[in-house]
Structures are given as structure tokens and as C-alpha cells.
TrEMBL record:
Name of the protein described by the UniProt record: C-terminal processing peptidase-3. Serine peptidase. MEROPS family S41A
SUPFAM superfamilies linked: ClpP/crotonase, PDZ domain-like
One GO cellular component, as annotated: outer membrane-bounded periplasmic space
GO function term, MF aspect, one: endopeptidase activity
Organism, as annotated: Draconibacterium orientale
Family per record: Belongs to the peptidase S41A family.
Length: 555
């Protein structure tokens, strides 16, 4: 009996090994077959297509399309994209230190960084780049111009510019230098009791920047800290772990990664002694807070170390690893998912159906699982981190969106800064009646006109009503509604003045005080910060957020 059983087990094992070998060989054959098809197709296309083709562009397109079928974060990095990739991970590059963008047919300086060559050599936001190193930029895109502006540190680059309001262009020889973008663009005391740190990216050593800022602020004996991660797209996982470690005891699990290659699975714990484990903390987030931002906010929430304030975060819980390819190229490939201390993954369950900004869309309750925090609060997966204190995001009017996207606010700020040598400190500056009147005149003189989303929807409704033969029955009501929602520039500029003034203030202040000034100007009017301060300093409210059994909303 035992002998027959042993023979049976051996036969099953042999069949299993044979089946495994067969499927593996079959898969290898399929790979080889399809690669051969691709090679022969590409060869025939290159030889016989009616027009000249660019082999590099064709291969890049085919690779990009292939990877896009997997997930949004698995990407091919070509040799000419390596500099941008290094900048994303380190925050460093060699260049003039300015953000550029395309406005109509022109490449313009969108923002010179304070303390770097562009600003030191007198280049201003709004300046039009005509030539770089003698090359006309007329038919170039922003990537082409950016490549020309970057280069070896301590070497000059000649830039020909046209300043709005001036007749003659001018030329500047800007000496490039190593540019390191500050991951903490601003920190300070908002009031006597509240410390504030804005973190814009998780680049190399950003945890040291946060540590330095916190230690300096702690000397003021604040009762609470606001860590602002709104709009922070993430970055290096290890930096997120180090930042959480500043506020949680040594040995606490912060995040873990799990993927196909089990040897790469890893648990990240707090390995150093913390700076502070008792101060009240609020992490401010929105739908633009992604990846490493979600590790920090999720871990702080799961460990009941602080409260999360804002809107649901982006929902990116996938880990990427870079793999070297031939000819100095790389593959950034998704290799794992990360899980925060409660065991939940903050990756959106369905990243193919998201909101317009790419953040988590609606997730059915049936797909959501329940988890608990360290103190027993109920939290859920499904995508992103749901805040303890929710703040509805302010939506801009159609008029404001049009004024921004058509560069009218930007252009007015350029005009205003070129006509005024200085303005008051960021906290003191405001859009007066006179400045707003100047802006209204500027908009009207530009020939600006626009249609609202309501008008577009009404047009569709009218078409449907006519098709269904209801239009004649309600013609008077339709006409009255059309009259009410028809944009009136003077009326709308008055109606939406508060939000337009905020946009103008931020843009004008940034021309004189750069990014830090813009942040300083916005703090006093920031509804998110005001709500966070209220939650932090209400003793009963703050403590109530950590009661066992409390449900942190699913949506």
C-alpha cells in the first residue's frame, strides 16, 4: 500500500514538474515569437513606409503604449530624459534656476527661483525667451528649450529675451550653477501656538530639512504642528519613513511593501529615536497628495499620532523600482504595493476610473474593507487616505479658470511688476479697489470673452428638448434661463472678486517675494489652515478624534 502511494506521489510530482516546464517553455516561446514579429514588422515599416520615419520616435511610442496598458507609473526613461529623472528624485540639476512654460506661441519664464542664476541676472517672470545659445525658440516646445538651458555648472548660456512693455529685446549671459530646489519652501510660526512646515516633495535628504525646521520651530514652544503636504506628489519612500520616525517611537512599523518578487518584500520601521512623540500634529492633505505623502499621512493616522485634515488623498500605493537598460536608458517598473500600519493599501482599487485630476474616483462600498488603527478606530481601504477632518475643496468659477488658463492673471501680474518697483510685505499686501479696477480694464482691453459650463450644458439640454419636442412647450422658460446664465464680464468680475483677488494677490506677490512670499501671503486667508488650527487647539475635539471605535469616513 505504502509502495503504491509513494509511486502515486512520484507520478503526481513528475506531472507537476512537467506541467511547470511546459508552461514556462510555452511562455518563453510566446515572448520569442512576438519579439520576432515586432522585429520583422519594424524592419518592413522602416524600409517601405511612404514617408521617412524616425526609428527612435517609433520605438519610444511603441514602448510607451505597451507600458500604458499596465499602470500609469511603469515608464520607459530614454537617454534624453535622464536629467529630468534625476531632478525628480534628487531635486538637483545644473541650469539657470527657472520654471518655463508655453504661452500661445512663446516660451516664457513662468517663475525664476529665488537666489539662483535667472533671478541674480535680472530675468523676470513673463520674459519671453527668443533664443538660447543663438538658436531660435520659435518652433520649440518647453522640453527643447529646457534642454538648451541646462548644461555644465559654472558655464555661461546666452539667452535673448523680450520683456513685455519694452520695445527692444535684450541678451543675458547667465552662468549656470547646480540647482537644488528646497523641499521645504517655507516654515514658520503661524501664531504663538502653531508651528507650520510646508513640504513640497520627497527628494533626497528632505527629512533632514523637515528635522531642521521642526527643531528651530520647537524653540518657540508651540502646542501643535501643521505639516502641509497639499499638492505634494511624493518621491522617495525612505524619506517618508524618516519623516514619520521624527514623531513616532523607535521600532514602530511605518510601511511595508509586498510584490511578486518575495525577496524584495520589506517592512520599514522607525530605526532612530524620535524628536517628539507628544506634540499635537495635523497633516494637511488634498487630492494632489500622493505616494510618499500618503505614507506619511496614512502612518500618522494609523498610529494615532495625529489627525489628518483636508480631502481624500490621490490614491497611489504602488512602488516603483528603476532597472538599467542598454544605451543609458532605464525602466521604472511597478514592483510592489505598500501597506500602512493598519494593513490597508492606499492604492486606488481601480486606477483606470479616476477623477479629472487623476485622484480616487467613487469606490463601491462592496469593494471596501475595514481596518483598525492602533487605538481601535475604524479606517478603510479603497484608495487614498480619508481625513479625520474633512474640508470641502473650493471650486473656482468658470471665469477664474478662464482667466488663469488664458494667462490674463499672469500677464497682468507681469505688467504690474514691471510698472512698480516694490510692494508691501506679503502679509500686508492686498488687492485694493484701484488694483482690481486696473485688472478689470486690462481684461476688457484684451478682448476677452468666455462661455460658462452652464451654457454648454444648456445647449445640450436645448438640443434634447427640441429632439423630444418639448422645446416649444417651455420656450419662455428656456429663454429666461439662457438670459440668466449668459456671462456678463462686468457682473461676473464683481461677483467673483474674492477668488479672483486671491489669485491676483498670489501671482503679484510671487513676482516680488518669489515662492516663499506667495506662501506667506496665502496663509492668513487659507481656509484649510484655519480649519486645521481650530481642530488642533480645541482640547476636547482633538482628543475625541482618537476614541476607540470611532469611524473615519469611507468617502
Amino acid at each position: 500500500m505504502k509502495k503504491r502511494l509513494l509511486i502515486g506521489i512520484t507520478i503526481v510530482a513528475v506531472i507537476g514538474i512537467s506541467f511547470f516546464s511546459f508552461t514556462r517553455d510555452e511562455k518563453n516561446f510566446e515572448i520569442a515569437k512576438n519579439l520576432d514579429i515586432y522585429h520583422t514588422l519594424f524592419r518592413e515599416l522602416n524600409m517601405f513606409y511612404v514617408d521617412e520615419v524616425n526609428p527612435n520616435d517609433l520605438v519610444k511610442t511603441s514602448i510607451d503604449e505597451m507600458l500604458s496598458s499596465l499602470d500609469p507609473y511603469t515608464n520607459y526613461i530614454s537617454e534624453d530624459q535622464m536629467e529630468d529623472f534625476r531632478f525628480m528624485t534628487t531635486g538637483e540639476y545644473a541650469g539657470i534656476g527657472a520654471l518655463i512654460s508655453k504661452q500661445n506661441d512663446n516660451i516664457i519664464i513662468a517663475e525664476p527661483y529665488e537666489g539662483f542664476p535667472a533671478q541674480k541676472f535680472g530675468i523676470k517672470a513673463g520674459d519671453i525667451i527668443l533664443e538660447v545659445s543663438g538658436k531660435d525658440t520659435k518652433d520649440m516646445n518647453t522640453e527643447d528649450v529646457s534642454t538648451l538651458l541646462k548644461g555644465p555648472a559654472n558655464k555661461p548660456v546666452t539667452i535673448k529675451l523680450q520683456r513685455p512693455g519694452q520695445k527692444k529685446p535684450f541678451t543675458v549671459d547667465v552662468v549656470r550653477q547646480k540647482i537644488s530646489i528646497d523641499a521645504v519652501p517655507y516654515y514658520g510660526m503661524i501664531d504663538q501656538n502653531t508651528a507650520y512646515i510646508r513640504l513640497s516633495n520627497f527628494t533626497t535628504n528632505c527629512s533632514e530639512d523637515v528635522k531642521k525646521a521642526f527643531l528651530e520651530l520647537k524653540e518657540n514652544n508651540p502646542d501643535g504642528l501643521i505639516l502641509d503636504l497639499r499638492g505634494n506628489p511624493g518621491g522617495l519612500l525612505v524619506e517618508a519613513v524618516k519623516i514619520v520616525n521624527l514623531f513616532v517611537p523607535k521600532g514602530e512599523e511605518i510601511v511595508s511593501t509586498r510584490g511578486k518578487v518575495k525577496q524584495w518584500d520589506k517592512v520599514y520601521k522607525a530605526t532612530a529615536e524620535p524628536l517628539d512623540t507628544t506634540m499635537k500634529i495635523a497633516v494637511l492633505v488634498n487630492s494632489g497628495s500622493a505616494s510618499a505623502s500618503e505614507i506619511v499621512s496614512g502612518a500618522i493616522q494609523d498610529l494615532d499620532r495625529g489627525i489628518i485634515v483636508g480631502t481624500r488623498t490621490f490614491g497611489k500605493g504602488l512602488v516603483q523600482t528603476t532597472r538599467d537598460l542598454s544605451y543609458n536608458t532605464k525602466l521604472k517598473v511597478t514592483t510592489a504595493k505598500y501597506y500602512i500600519p493598519s494593513g490597508r493599501c492606499i492604492q486606488a482599487l481601480d486606477y483606470s476610473h479616476r477623477n479629472e485630476d487623476g485622484s480616487v474616483g467613487h469606490v463601491p462600498d462592496s469593494l471596501i474593507s475595514e481596518f483598525t488603527t492602533k487605538k481601535g478606530r475604524k479606517v478603510y481601504d479603497g484608495g487614498g487616505v480619508v481625513p479625520d477632518v474633512k474640508i470641502e475643496g473650493d471650486k473656482l468659477s468658470s471665469l477664474s479658470i478662464e482667466l488663469v488658463t488664458r494667462f490674463l492673471i499672469f500677464d497682468f501680474a507681469t505688467k504690474y511688476s514691471n510698472e512698480n518697483e516694490s510692494i508691501p510685505e506679503p502679509e500686508e499686501f492686498s488687492i485694493t479697489d484701484d488694483i482690481y479696477r486696473q485688472f478689470a480694464d486690462f481684461v476688457e482691453q484684451s478682448g476677452f470673452n468666455y462661455e460658462s459650463a452652464s451654457q454648454d450644458d444648456l445647449k445640450e439640454l436645448l438640443e434634447t428638448a427640441k429632439y423630444e419636442k418639448y422645446y416649444e412647450l417651455a420656450k419662455e422658460e428656456f429663454d429666461a434661463l439662457a438670459a440668466k446664465i449668459e456671462p456678463d464680464l462686468d457682473k461676473d468680475l464683481a461677483a467673483f472678486r474674492p477668488e479672483i483677488s486671491d489669485l491676483l494677490e498670489s501671482e503679484i506677490v510671487s513676482r516680488f517675494y518669489y515662492q516663499k512670499g506667495s506662501i506667506r501671503a496665502s496663509i492668513n486667508d487659507d481656509k484649510g489652515i484655519a480649519k486645521t488650527i481650530e481642530a488642533l487647539h480645541s482640547e476636547t475635539a482633538y482628543a475625541a478624534y482618537f476614541k476607540p471605535g470611532l469611524v473615519v469616513g469611507m468617502n
